[in-house]
Amino acid sequence: MSVQSRIAEVTDRIAGRSRETRGRYLARIEAAAAAAGGRRPRLGCANEAHAFAACAAGDKPHQFAADAPNLGIVTAYNDMLSAHQPYERFPELIRRAARAAGGTAQVAGGVPAMCDGVTQGEAGMELSLFSRDVIALATGVALSHQVFDAAVYLGVCDKIVPGLVIGALSFGHLPAVFVPAGPMTSGLPNDEKAKIRQLHAEGKVGREALLEAEAKAYHGPGTCTFYGTANTNQMLMEIMGLHLPGSSFVNPNTGLRDALTEAAARRAIAITARGNDYTPVGRVLDEKAFVNGIVGLHATGGSTNHTIHLVAMAAAAGIVLRWDDFSDLAEVTPLLCRIYPNGKADVNHFHAAGGMGFLMRELLGAGLLHEDVETVWGKGLSNYLVEPAVGGDGALEWREAPVASGDEAVLRGAASPFQPTGGLRVLEGDLGRAVIKTSAVAPERHVIEAPARVFHSQEEVQAAFRKGELDRDFVAVVRFQGPKANGMPELHKLMPPLGVLQDRGRRVALVTDGRLSGASGKVPSAIHVTPEALEGGPIARVRDGDMVRVDAVAGRLDVLVEPAEWAARAPATADLSASQAGVGRELFAAFRAGVGSAEAGAAVF
């Protein structure tokens, strides 16, 4: 299958600029594979005794003799995250499947997994982005024992999957299969939840009503059902070839979910260097795989967090992604999905309407995906045009994915998209560079020009709203929220008040060096502004009353101040001491000091 010319052009551009770094990476993982000689390294006797001391008696002979592949399980299990609670049962399922396939499996290590839903608007959110790199580091520690032939990764949520991918790529000579847990069943509809949030922001309903609505929305095991970063992660792992086909959005604690988990373990055994289908993760995640991921991001209206995470993930594989690549691919990728916050449906509705198999069929048919890629399921993305089911005999089977959408209000074909482009633009101008997601923003709000109102925290915005100071047209400039300033927290608590004002007919927009993720919704938001304010970026020179223009049509982010006056202004400063200690933040001083820019992936590596 040939790809559309822009897809090919961007892929070639990425490969060209990455030639040196990708070459060094491939040489490194090939050297690691050669040193292993097709099997895990043989350790000293005392080392091996420690590694396998607690294993089941039946596993030890194979492990000591190194005559059976051994899987490492890297798990982000905890029972505080609804999405990760189902993983409690997975290690035993994986061990059982590995034994049946002639191998063994061990939990290599755990990685931290924080819930952004719990920490939204709280001090802990200032650790959220940094947790991604901690997870990558913890993955490296888990696999450093060198007793594994492949690894399976148990993770779902926002920073966890990107962190696991970065860690896996450091051991790129090992095969890697990512094992999802699935979304919770549908609860309170997302549009009803959003309405209650806005009513609470206006003071029209109390905390009890708000808590009741939130509990009905987030009510059981599994991923939150809106299409934020967690579910975007699952889409990416499938379209980039690291999941089993059709496995991303199967609900937890079902027979099909368990069958897919066991199948993932068997597949990990099958693709080790001991067999004939060796598939190291460092080869799977190449330039074409990352372009496929970005196309999937645009086609589904996925999380803007991935304009940061995909850059960092690619860098771990020696691949240099830039925001311009995202923007150029968005121009040719149609929006095929309407999942909240870009619509009323949740991911269960998306899955029922045809899900990933239908989506990839449409994108492949339109020449928007590279078919000729390596995946954990075999060579070629066409292998993913199937969906799993449990047959009458209880065995896992694969059926052809739907050829037509089951609900065109949720999922459409490439010939009749919701809009012709992916709805993500890179903005550039007097205030630096930023990204904006327009797929949920009404077209008449794609350009906002209004006076600035400057804030240094989302709490200041909320306080001004409660005082009635914001009932007018304005652009909220919320700065000193970048990675160096305070870890670049998500600023979701800005959305209810700004949404209320927009619904009143006010022309409002947001400009910030912080994040919003997949839930930015209907308010035009220029986010990830770089350089950030703490680095002396132009956003630090904005003053109350300056006319700011956010133009998602022309791709501009400007302040309408006389050039001489603008150039003469000194950047503002902020007291950030409150973000430097407490709730563990003092432990991350080195991260804040060493982190890169948002456009470079906001990584400490």
UniProtKB/TrEMBL annotation:
Keywords: 4Fe-4S, Carbohydrate metabolism, Gluconate utilization, Iron, Iron-sulfur, Lyase, Metal-binding. Residues 410-602 form the Dihydroxy-acid/6-phosphogluconate dehydratase C-terminal domain. One of its GO terms (molecular function) is metal ion binding. [4Fe-4S] cluster binds at residues 157, 224. It catalyses: 6-phospho-D-gluconate = 2-dehydro-3-deoxy-6-phospho-D-gluconate + H2O. Residues 69-382 form the Dihydroxy-acid/6-phosphogluconate dehydratase N-terminal domain. The keyword Transport does not apply. Belongs to the IlvD/Edd family. Catalyzes the dehydration of 6-phospho-D-gluconate to 2-dehydro-3-deoxy-6-phospho-D-gluconate. This is Phosphogluconate dehydratase. It comes from Roseomonas acroporae. The gene is edd.
